[in-house]
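Why do we bother with a discrete structure alphabet at all? Because it lets us treat a fold like text: something you can write down, compare, and reason about line by line. To make this less abstract, here is a complete entry for Bifunctional oligoribonuclease/PAP phosphatase NrnA. Read it the way you would read a sentence in a foreign language you are learning: slowly, and without expecting to understand everything at once.
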Amino acid sequence: MQNLDAFKELLDSPKKVAITTHHKPDADALGSSLGLAAFLKKKGHEVSVITPTDYPVFLHWMKGHKEVIIYNQQNEANSHKIISEAEVIFCLDFSSLHRINELGEKVRQSSAVKVLIDHHLEPEDFADFTKWSTKAAATTELLYELIVEMGEENYIDKDIAECLYAGIMTDTGSFRHPNTTKNVHRITAALMEKGADVSKVSRLIYDTSSLEKLKLIGYALSEKLVVLKEYNTAYITISAEELSRFNSKTGDTEGLVNYGLSIEGIVFAVVIIDRKDIIKMSFRSVGDFSVNEFAKKHFGGGGHKNAAGGKSNLSLPDTIKRFEELLLQYKEKLNPHIKKPYTS
Ligand code: 5GP
Ligand code: MN
């Protein structure tokens, strides 16, 4: 971070701090928010964490979860008050203010000192202090580094270490994606030295599914998976009726997109879900095909080169039609061997 000394000075005396993160927080978003909140509380600050929406139950074990304010009608006024009274606002794991819905404008208007810690592409220039790198696998990796740069890693206890580890574990796909660097492993080792129980965190996040969630996955794979070999693409669509038939909860469809990508030869996988108010899309790729570009250009979204999200205002059938039509433009990028017959 540039101006590290000024940043340290800012946090040297107790402040009113607000921390916020992106829509439907994942383990990196919530882990960085609650890890930072616990760290700042230990330093004597008054800290509130506000999330734009709820988040999956498999993150409820994180220390500080019970104090999180989920921005909705009931506590809209309270959230606005916290944002307007904050002296420092941290924005974690997102790169532009529109990602936090209506809260974004409140943050923009606030006179608080703003701090961005993030690893998404194309950050908006709104923060006074920035710790940003797309080379980082997770926001929690950057947060760990920042705490070390500040010379304050002695504040990291077991609870904080487990929040930070959760972000690294999930954003690297359990140390499988190309973002799994030596640095990631070094930081993981340091977090284990601070007491992080990595096996426990893995079990709490990945192995606490409801039966309904598993049945939805089974149904999606057997009935809803479409493989377009000529595009090396696989996609799954889920209607609003199907979500309610399987009593789907926040987080139940997280990771579904990876099944498509696990098919041999597939380089582009998509999940399209009708969330009633909006059609939400998840994009994943392996190799050179940039899903960030695809999501940004066609579906008002973005993210990372190999993992991005977006949305559509069309109906589900029209979104599927549009998606399939778009693939035509990318045929050669998705299948460089297009002129040869597909061999599988
Ligand atoms: P997911 O598919 O898991 O929801 O998101 C994949 C990645 O893309 C995450 O890093 C997430 O923050 C980002 N992302 C998801 N949806 C959007 C979106 O609508 N806009 C932008 N800019 N990024 C998104
Ligand atoms: Mn992240």
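What the structure line is telling us, in plain words: The first helix runs from residue 4 to 10. Residues 4-206 form a domain with the inorganic pyrophosphatase (n-terminal core) fold (CATH 3.90.1640.10).
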